[in-house]
Amino acid sequence: MARPKPPTEGTPLCNVEHIEFESRADDIKAGLIDTFLNLQRIDTNLYIARHLLKGRHSYNAVYGGQVVGQSLAAAAATVEDCFIPHSLHSYFIKTGSVDKPILYMIDRIRDGRSFCTRVVKAVQDGEAIFSCQISFHHKEPDAIKHSSKMPLVAGPEELLPAREAAIEVLRSNSVDEVTAGVIQHFLKEIPDAFERVFDVRPVNPAKYLLKEDTEPMSMIWIRARENLGDDTRLHQCVAAYLTDLSMLTTAVRPHIRKGFIPSMSFSLDHCVWIHENEFRMDDWMLYETVSSKAGGSRAFIEGRLWSRDGRLIISTAQEALVRAPKV
């Protein structure tokens, strides 16, 4: 794979078309670290990502969670290790493509004694496709402390991986033809690379796979299949990467069950609050999502990521665009 030339004065760094591109995201031997979160520093405050994952198998748009995770990885590379990311607020501005690399541009807004702030802009073809502001906090002792309780659900060992659960539903002939078609489409759309590196297990497969009516809420167990090591920042970036996973589908799933098929759906913005620093994404984590409101072709979704031992690790919020087919 050709390497980009060192930047020189006048080099159009905001236009990355001149960089030859070859992604390893679909390489069966490629793991999580050396593909989806791998960034190359090309200059001060400039990082490039070459290995991009599709959000859907049939569509060349990059998975939004990968852009979130890579933005956090790029911003974290510009702050001292004693500063921990605690909040990320972002907008998906334009659909990114997996056929071209993404350039991440970091603006060091503030370096204080307690907080550091970074603004990240993700660029393709000289245009912004994503922007976010990330705040880092120097660790402090507890002043007050409380937490919600983790839902009581079946453990991951008692559940089937999402694909196996879907195949079991199809073999049982327990759903109508339309629902079976939706499930088959779901199976085709999951990128092979994603299933290779992550294990996802729905807590209630019957509702998750549209076999039963459901409210706009969902719970899944998830973990990375490979050992991610002991770098806490890496686990934070993987967590950010995964927080976009099931939010939009949580909002539309009850309506698909009733026959609704969106003509367009994608994330508009995405917020992440990291409450605890010590957790592992190669251990089982429970991701709980609920959509409290939908209207005006937008849906609002909130999420909570829990560690296996019951700690609330991350809270999320997202607004998504959901359009109906034109009559």
TrEMBL record:
One of its GO terms (cellular component) is peroxisomal matrix. Residues 193-322 form the Acyl-CoA thioesterase-like C-terminal domain. GO terms for biological process: acyl-CoA metabolic process; fatty acid catabolic process. Residues 60-137 form the Acyl-CoA thioesterase-like N-terminal HotDog domain. Keywords: Hydrolase, Lipid metabolism. GO terms for molecular function: fatty acyl-CoA hydrolase activity. Gene3D superfamilies: Acyl-CoA thioesterase, double hotdog domain. CDD domains: Thioesterase_II_repeat1, Thioesterase_II_repeat2. It holds the Pfam family 4HBT_3C. Signal peptide: none annotated. Belongs to the C/M/P thioester hydrolase family. NCBIfam families: tesB. This is Acyl-CoA thioesterase II domain-containing protein. It comes from Caenorhabditis nigoni.
